[in-house]
Design a protein that fits this description.
The complex is a heterodimer of chains A (84) and B (369).
Chain A lengths: L1 E7 L2 H13 L3 E6 L11 E7 L2 H10 L7 E4 L5 E4 L2
Antiparallel strand pairs in A: 1-3, 1-4, 2-3, 4-5
Chain B lengths: L1 E2 L11 H13 L9 H21 L6 E4 L2 H12 L5 E5 L4 H9 L3 E5 L6 H11 L6 E5 L11 H10 L4 E4 L11 H4 L3 E5 L11 E5 L35 H17 L1 H21 L3 E3 L7 E5 L4 H10 L2 E2 L1 E3 L4 H7 L6 E5 L6 H11 L8
Parallel strand pairs in B: 1-11, 3-4, 3-5, 5-6, 6-7
Antiparallel strand pairs in B: 2-8, 7-8, 9-10, 10-13, 12-13
Chain lengths: 84, 369
């Protein structure tokens, strides 16, 4: 199970994303975006636990929820941006 | 008190709505700003309100913009679609919430359809008016003065066929008549949260099919470094702290409407209104009633309208008198000089209350038994 962050521009989209992923069986939780992840300032992110991040991203795209970025949290705790 | 002024606001609010407001005030901080529990509880409350509205009005949560009133939403929509000096088609039954923002923009108004309860005339007049060069159409679903239900599906279809954007004022219909953003194809639908949706005063909704221009600029809790408003709805139109207790009450009110069903609510209120209109006519009063009428009835009491309303108030009956912020509607109906007395029925009115009102009306000097 990998651990990801998906960032959004708005809390509303993050919330709809949370709902879509939850309904799709993807475990996630809503939180503030860590400051360094969002160069434009405040935002909200979903912490996602999954083996298949592409499935989560596809669920969001099908639901017309625009996302900002996806980060993978590696075993050493470092975060790495993922191409989606 | 017998409350027959539901066209102004529904009153009293259901107990569940009042409880929801109180609960939110105890549990919710600022939504979309912090990550701690009370801020997240507020964000979830706001989202639930959007979801409930989306379920009732056939749209996605992000298309639901929370406003302070129907007027607020109409101002956003009008400022988005109408340029200064633009050409706009309106119905003959618009509220000042529509005509004043248009006047402030110096818009050139074409009034279409001034005959009460006459769909044929209304549609013919809109057909004539919706011509190339028109920037937008703005029309009410239900006249706040006379309860006239306009043929908005047909007018909307005309607008879509001709590529003219349009705004629906659902102030008197949301919660009792079908209002569906996608089906109607409106660019914007504005409504209050505190009338047919049973929420608290100070709440409203603007349903948006696409983007819009902000009326207010400020903090949204997102993209804080940018000095422009975020491009996405709903935050683009929601600068400043939202009315979270209002959202909680509004969500509860909307869920009550979803549970009871708009049709059932309408049938009940309409039956009371038509019974009242018929009995007022039998008493000899001039009553404005006809086909395509909602649960609002205007009449002339044979004396000054405000004095008649004051007489009723003394007997514990609350009605509205005067021009009801809609001089255009009175001009259309020929009642601009006199105004009218308006009775408007709501979710918890009863036949007994109607009878009490009618009994009180028999004390008007001309109709004294």
């Amino acid at each position: 199970m990998n651990h990801y962050y998906i960032t959004f521009r708005s809390v509303t989209f993050a919330q709809r994303g949370e709902q879509l992923l939850g309904r799709g069986g993807v475990r996630c939780s809503l939180q503030r975006t860590p400051r360094w992840m969002e160069e434009q300032g405040c935002g909200y992110a979903l912490r996602v636990w999954t083996t298949d991040i592409s499935q989560a991203v596809e669920l969001l795209r099908k639901g017309k929820v625009p996302l900002r970025r996806v980060y993978l949290q590696k075993e050493d705790g470092q975060l790495e941006e993922q191409a989606v | 008190m017998i409350y027959l002024d539901n066209g102004a606001t529904s009153f009293p609010k259901p107990l569940s709505v009042r409880r929801a407001v109180a609960r939110a005030m105890a549990r919710c901080a600022n939504p979309g700003r912090g990550g701690y529990a009370a801020a997240m509880a507020a964000a979830r409350q706001v989202y639930r309100c959007r979801e409930a509205a989306g379920a009732l009005f056939d749209c996605r949560p992000e298309q639901v913009v929370l406003t302070a009133s129907c007027t607020h939403g109409l101002n956003i929509a009008i400022r988005t679609l109408v340029k200064p000096g633009g050409r706009v088609v309106v119905s003959g039954f618009e509220h000042n919430a529509v005509t004043r923002p248009l006047h402030a923009l110096g818009a050139e108004l074409q009034v279409a359809g001034q005959r009460l309860f006459d769909w044929t005339d209304t549609l013919e007049q809109f057909d004539k008016a919706l011509r190339p060069g028109v920037d937008a159409a703005v029309f009410t679903h239900v006249s706040n003065v006379f309860g006239y239900i306009l043929p908005v599906e047909q007018i909307g279809a005309m607008c879509r066929e001709r590529g003219i954007p349009f705004i629906l004022d659902a102030a008197q219909s949301a919660g009792t008549l079908p209002v569906k953003l996608e089906t109607l194809g409106a660019d914007f639908i504005a409504m209050p949260g505190h009338k047919g949706l049973l929420g608290p005063q100070g709440t409203g909704l603007l349903l948006c099919r696409a983007g819009a221009e902000p009326l207010l600029y400020g903090g949204t809790g997102s993209m804080s470094i940018a000095q422009t408003m975020p491009p996405e709805l709903p935050e683009r139109l929601e600068a400043g702290t939202l009315n979270v207790p209002g959202c909680a009450g509004l969500e509860t009110g909307i869920r009550q409407v979803l549970s009871a069903g708009e049709q059932a609510i309408f049938r009940r209120e309409h039956r009371l209104a038509m019974d009242c209109a018929g009995k007022l006519e039998k008493m000899g009063m001039q009553v404005y009633t006809g086909e395509h009428q909602a649960a609002t009835v205007s009449f002339l009491p044979g004396m000054d309208c405000e004095e008649a309303a004051a007489m009723l108030a003394k007997q514990g009956i609350a009605v509205r008198a005067g021009l009801h912020c809609a001089p255009l509607a009175h001009e259309s109906a020929g009642t601009l000089e006199t105004g009218t007395v308006r009775v408007s029925f709501g979710w918890d009115n009863t036949s007994a209350q109607t009878e009490a009102f009618l009994s009180a009306a028999t004390k008007f000097p001309r109709f004294r038994r």
